[in-house]
Design brief:
Blueprint (H helix, E strand, L loop, with lengths): L15 E3 L2 E3 L6 E3 H6 L21 E3 L3 E2 L6 E2 L4 E2 L3 E2 L6 E5 L3 E5 L4 E3 L1
Antiparallel strand pairs: 1-2, 2-3, 4-7, 4-11, 5-6, 8-9, 9-10
Protein name: Alkylphosphonate utilization protein
Family: Belongs to the YjdM family.
InterPro entries: YjdM, YjdM_C, YjdM_N
Amino acid sequence: MSNLPNCPKCGSEYTYNDGSQYVCPECAHEWAIDAQADGETDDRVIKDANGNVLQDGDTVTVIKDLKVKGSSLVVKVGTKVKGIRLVDGDHDIDCKIDGIGAMKLKSEFVKKV
């Protein structure tokens, strides 16, 4: 059959080559061909302000007043954020805050509950 690797996220054998990366049609995960050759994984460890490892679905508390860019709103200290999602980029946490809406937060401004 094919000599392409199985998807590292869901294990699907139906991966395909799309330019410089592999793509899984079942879970839509994409990873670099170079990463597979070097044995690298994209398991990035994201930690909160206290050094605790964060995972998808965790509940965190904001430890500093955060101004919402482009608005007069402020996320106050002690605000609980439930069901976070970890993402790549400068702002590691994608979440929804009551009264404010969808936001991206930096992990250095939260602590795990």
